[in-house]
User: Fold TetR family transcriptional regulator from Kribbella alba.
Amino acid sequence: MGLRELKRERTRRLISDKAFELFIDHGFGRTTVEQIAAAAEVGPSTLYRYFPTKETLVLEFVEDSLFGALDWFREQPPIDLPDGLQSVIERVLDQLEGNPDRVRTVYELARQTPSVSAHLTEAIWRWRNELTVELSRRLAADSPDQPLAGESVEFTAALAAGITMNIIEITVQMWVDNPAGTDVKELAREAMCLLRGGGIPLPAVGR
Amino acid sequence: MGLRELKRERTRRLISDKAFELFIDHGFGRTTVEQIAAAAEVGPSTLYRYFPTKETLVLEFVEDSLFGALDWFREQPPIDLPDGLQSVIERVLDQLEGNPDRVRTVYELARQTPSVSAHLTEAIWRWRNELTVELSRRLAADSPDQPLAGESVEFTAALAAGITMNIIEITVQMWVDNPAGTDVKELAREAMCLLRGGGIPLPAVGR
DNA sequence: GAAATCTTGGTTGTGACTACCATATGACTG
DNA sequence: CAGTCATATGGTAGTCACAACCAAGATTTC
Assistant:
């Protein structure tokens, strides 16, 4: 790795950390981008080159966790779909559990600030849509002509992706509300059991 | 109704209509609030009094459809929960089907403009959370001590609300993509059938 | 018709974000 | 090592969404 890349990572980290400090101390709305830039000892122009919007400063970590797991899933070989979704969920939860403080802070900021909340939900929504595409691909490639309870592949994929997203959101929410008494992955596993039970017509083998 | 209220409704409508015209013609980002105010022949101050943000101009209709149905549901007597959720879904879809053009325009604008998309998902997310609260209330009041497959009431409520939201989103999405060939309510009814089938442990009688 | 109340439009200010340019700094070549 | 090339940086100027405030006009109420 060249010196250039190294410095870039360092600067990015520095800006992000200083931003979180200021957000925690003074709130999102009461912190200006110029203050963050000054704290990180860079010009505002530079800051904007790394983080196109103020909200990105907060949400980059969550977004990386989500889309990292999705990228991983895309490279997995065809696999039993419920198992696949469960492993995606666990991968996301692993990432988030690695930085509990950041997760809590993000949730706190989202609760207080509408624009953060809006960008957070938008990222989750975008993630769900991309997961839908991937599931459609796997379902279509797999089932030559399965009835799927009379519904189309797109419909099933969208529903499965939506429920996957719901499980992640709900388990994380409960974990944030009660950090000590919650085993996130166990909770997600139980939730998945409900879905395997039969109601949602996930074919036993997806692709 | 006094003259004051009448004028207020008229002005609100006028601003909203002009805004949609401009958004359709020139796009969301290329239209300034001042242009909208000028087109509606009011001052920018007045516009901001009616619509606190530029995005509200676009999303008020969707938000009214969602939360109107929720308000209605809150006033319903205890009822079989799957039936209740299905009627909520149908109520939302009825509202949206009443203005197909607006719905399509909103989706179009959301697709093109990140900030509109963000505010749209945030509104949907907020709606789901309020539905979760209402479902929790009904479930708690009903079941003296049902096992609920080992999960808490909150968890079941959140999952049910999430799935309800998913069904609405998916059916509307498919309707927007293919306006002619989709019977939204029939689609939603079929989706609900899947859930009644057993996988999601909605108790047969909620409250 | 007068007083109280609400609505309006304008003014000023802040802060996020864009476009642009000159300078500095690490990277590669002879 | 010197030179040049590509990229990163910081600063400037400008746009636009939005908040706070205030004076004038319209509506309602007595």
Observations:
- DSSP finds nine helices and no strands in chain B.
- The two ends of chain B are 37 Å apart (CA to CA).
- Chain B touches chain A through 36 residues (CB under 8 Å).
